[in-house]
Batch of 3 targets.
Target 1
Amino acid sequence: MKMLVVYTYPNHKSLNYAFSQQVMKGSKENANIKGIQMLDLYEDGFNPLLVFNEQKRRRDMHIDPELEKYRQQIKWADKLVFIYPIWWGRPPAMLLGYIDQMFASNFAYKDKKGLFPEGLLKGKSVVCISTMKGPTNYPMLWLNNAHKILMKKALFNFVGIKKVKFFEFGNMESPRGNHSKKLEKIYQYFQKIDK
């Protein structure tokens, strides 16, 4: 299994970064994982802004040379791991900008006759690790599971990815947030995961 970790947080002294390090540590100890790439969207200087004009057309995003490196990473990976905070009930704009550009028509899906397109990323799987200030059940109870619906149904299922695992960690700004226990849970998961 080859794994791409997409880290989206602007501070390396953060809990999100600690989660990324636990993912890497557990994965490096897992014989089932044959290769790991880490993409830090902030450190890499990824531009989340969409630009469409005479030179850059939306229908050509799947062949935009500026995005080729990122497309190759997604093609290479069997498993995509996203690490990010939940702000205002959804992932940060940086990650959404990456999604807007990378999960483009003719790369991640292809329109066909009928109601739904053909997902072109079949066979891949996803793990989403997210943190939030509010309680863990907040997205489910107050937002009708908007975060999971956005990521799983509106995005990953749409492009053919059916296996999606979520770790939503709440109360992360509280000293009673059980940070060590949650970090250990992520380490253990990636140390043992087999597909």
Target 2
Amino acid sequence: MAPIFDRLRRRRADMPFCTAVVPAAGSSTRMEGQDKILLTLGDYPVLVRTLQALEACTRIQEIVVVTREDLIVPVSQLCRDFALEKVTHIVTGGTTRTQSVLNGIREASPQAGLIAIHDGARPFVTQEVLEEVIDRAAQCGAAAPAVPVTDTVKRAMNGIVEETVDRDTLFAVQTPQVFEASLIKVALQRAVEEGVTLTDDCAAVERLGMKVALTRGDRANIKLTTPTDLDLGLGILNGRGEFV
């Protein structure tokens, strides 16, 4: 791993080619059986809104979508219908999110120096969040947007509180999570080989001893997971003046 770490310590003079990998292969069990990425939100499917945000980012050169086998055709049609020109590949996911992301990374252009991994069901990411996290990853090799935790957090065992955690040190991490391309590929491959369950992609590089920088997230950059989240999404669109 030493050569990778040496490369990461050197600040890049120019922005590297960035491939966005968009995992959209989940079962949507918490969305009451509806495929959340295909649900319409303010006249546009959720996945289209997500891809349009990535398409508009000048720091992203290509997009690889990872989805279920039964959604390959409808997702491909959406990309054609909405003229998403940066989408170069639509591939089938694996049995876990980690395997799905790895499948997407393997289809990235050989030119890719950075990989930005962004949830397909996170359609409200702004250009400011995208640009800041990609720029930071280009400098240090691994970065993710995050927002401070505002709720009081308790650590409990069997329903009994054991301690109150200091929330001043806690952050809710969002996507895109952006990494030096060879670093995240090695990290995810190792996680898959070792059968490790990860909650996010940052955890994969943290296992290798790599530090992840946090950039400013956005509380509107939510992941649509439940039907209630769709109502929140409509509120975000209204607040932005994007929904009629």
Target 3
Amino acid sequence: MSMFKIRQKNPLVHCITNYVVANFTANGMLAIGASPVMADEMDEVQEMVSIANALLLNIGTLNQRTFEAMKLAGKKANELNIPVVLDPVGVGATKFRQKAVNEMLNSIKIQLIRCNAGELATIAGVNWHSKGVDSGEGSMDVASVAKQVAHQYNCLVIVTGAADFVTDGVNEEWVLGGNELMTQITGTGCLLSAICAATLTLEGDQLQNLQNVLADYKKVAENASKKKLLGSFQMEVINGIHEASIGGEQWT
């Protein structure tokens, strides 16, 4: 139902994202009825975010130039009360990423951190074995740590995985379902972060809206996996998002 509401709202989402997923993210956002723009030039990001409804900061292919652009855009978004989503892709992989994420969390008001368990662990300072930009391996109470991070940065936190968890630091919800093929193609998590940014532009309870969109995305994954073919899965994800956004309460 939240995907249907996004189409009705048609928000402009400024995505400073990574070049691996930019095309898939843009197509996914168009499929859901949002308007994406991918602008990371420092001389225009403040102007661009000024006309946007939400901002996504995704560090997947971060470099010093895009880092500076993200900080400029984030601070301008804060001035204008535009919601900011941070996707700390592979934050545990290098010191550069850790420093960048730490600086953004402490200089920009982030409304939502959308991450996997490994990225959450790095942000929280929990011991974890990272594997590049993948989640890696480790042991922690995801719910407890996510709530701790939400309290620390006064934001919402979504941790995606076999089961998704969303919290505002007090209230919490688990979302079950999905399909593991989502982890075997590039960009599904990054697209979800952009969809979450669009979701923050909706009226109503933010936690509930995010829970609903996570449930929709899980259902999209389940439907897309029916052919069990990895090559067509990404296309079916786009199709599923489009169907969900036009189906309203009748979509299943």
